[in-house]
Amino acid sequence: MQYGVRAVRDRTDAELIQECLDGNSEAWEVLVHRYTRLIYSIPFKWGLQRDDAMEIFQSVWLDCFQELHSLRDIDRLQAWLVRIAVRKCYRFSATRRSRPEDVEINETDHASEDPSRELVDRLDREQLIRIGVGKLTERCQQVIKALFFEDPFPGYAAIASRLGLSSNSIGFTRDRCLERLGKLLEELGYEH
């Protein structure tokens, strides 16, 4: 299937999935890279250690690789990956508590009956924010990351210095970047 000259990293999940199924290893690398932070963050949200998180991360991608052909709704790839990771974390935690490993979380359960639904929803929103921030200009990405993700907070003067701006312009730049991010999130279907 031909997608033109657009770079592999700019392709949609659906396009990447098709290319993965066609054996394109570059498409697979892009797909894994696109969801690395999301999938790797889930075990940490379950309180697991780094080695356990890496094991779960690798296991999620192995399952994805083996079962990608069976994904019915390619627009739900992100949710599918999150469900796989949550199940693996649940089983891992259950094993640590000496619970049976045959506990299943049924995909068809109603949201109110699924204890992981809140986590899945939160992770979906976090991933949409990552995607939205990734679509901003480089300057806006740096401003947003410095203001909301750096710990400790670097301060307006340090951010301004990094970007070659005056300290007084950071507030205006922040507002403009947040406005653009809000529009991007709306386009992506982000719901509060």
Can you give a write-up of this model?
- The protein has 192 residues and is mostly helical.
- The protein has a domain of 109 residues: Orthogonal Bundle (Rna Polymerase Sigma Factor, Chain: A), CATH 1.10.1740.
- The chain is 65% helix and 0% strand.
- The chain contains eight helices and no strands.
- α6 packs across α8.
- The two termini are 37 Å apart.
In short:
With 192 residues, the chain is mainly α. The chain has helices at 13-21, 25-45, 50-67, 77-96, 117-134, 138-148, 156-163, 170-188.
Count of DSSP H/I helices = 8
CATH class value of one domain: Mainly Alpha
Query: Helix/strand/pairing class, anyone?
Result: mainly alpha
Looking at CATH, the homologous superfamily of one domain is RNA polymerase sigma factor, region 2, helix turn helix motif
- Strand residue percentage: under 5%
Mean pLDDT: 80
Task: Please give the alpha-carbon distance between the first and last residues.
Answer: 37 Å
Name the CATH architecture of one domain: Orthogonal Bundle
Shape: globular
Low-confidence stretches: 1-5, 99-115
Helix content: 55-70%
